Amino acid sequence: MQASELQRWARTRLQGMRRFVLFRGVLAYGVPMFVIMTFVIPHPKLSTWQSAMLWLLTGAVYGVAMWLLQEHRYRKALPRS
């Protein structure tokens, strides 16, 4: 991680994991995927409700995974004391 990435992630972590998962996972990933996969490329066996639950949950999982990955990279890049 570069110094600018470290600083940006340090600011992001102050906002907390819950906010990160909500905004970066659910809203930035889950909602667009729901719209695309439900209305642009519809799946014939899923109702709109099922698709919404699937993609919102997927967005949350994506957000948690990204948080954990960034945390790992952040801690690895910090100077050892």
Tell me the number of strands.
Answer: 0
Q: State the shape.
A: elongated
What distance lies between the first and last C-alpha atoms, to the nearest angstrom? 18 Å
Strand content: under 5%
Order of helices and strands: HHH
The domain tally reads: 1
What's the helical proportion of residues? over 70%
- Rg, please? 16 Å
Extract low-pLDDT stretches: none
- Give a short account of the largest sheet: none
Tally the helices.
Answer: 3
Kindly report the average pLDDT value.
93
Query: Which class best fits the helix and strand makeup?
Result: mainly alpha
Summarize the structure in words:
The chain has 81 residues and is mostly helical. It has one domain (3-77). 83% of the residues lie in helices and 0% in strands. The chain is built from 3 helices and no strands. It is elongated. The protein starts with a helix and ends with a helix. The model has no long low-confidence stretch (mean pLDDT 93).
What are its keywords?
81 residues; 0% strand
Short summary:
The protein is mostly helical and 81 residues long.
What is the element layout, followed by pairings?
Elements: H1 3-15, H2 17-40, H3 48-77
Helix pairs in contact: 2-3
